[in-house]
Amino acid sequence: MMSVLGLIGDALGMAAAMTWEILWALILGFGLSAIVQAVIRRESVYRLLGNDSPKTLAVASGLGAASSSCSYAAVALARALVRRGASFTAAMAFEIASTNLVVELGIIMALLLGWQFTASLFIGGPIMIVLVAVMFRLVLRERLLRDAITQAERGVAGSMEGHAAMDMSVRKPGGTGILRNSRVT
Question: How far is Cα 152 from Cα 42, in angstroms, rounded to an integer?
Fold first, then answer.
């Protein structure tokens, strides 16, 4: 029987391994986002990802699959691409591919869940990208896109982007904050 210290050591080792698995993807994704914003010229992004043609969506999907699989980093990079001239649809194709068509995710799924789940990941990802592109052509209006790009240029966080900075502290009952009288406010 393992001692309590051995179990704690194992737990700390697993926590360190999980931290590394998450940290490298965040660093890579946010680093790529910074490079896109600081180094890559707007004209280059526009030339490569400036429309929503099938060829452009294939390029965006390929670039996404080659990037980080971390959703926070994918969102940051997609936003940076839009700010540098990529079409919104191409940026979303990039984002979907970077979270669904990543090779290391496929390897992990194959090892843990079997080839069937891996196949569904790599078949479903492109289907999702095509459905999103078609849906955007049908329902997304130019005014809404302009408003979103204006918001991104001002650095205003969207409704989902600010959740990482939320105040998650628990305050005394009767005080102001997240918990008051055991109810969420």
Answer: 15
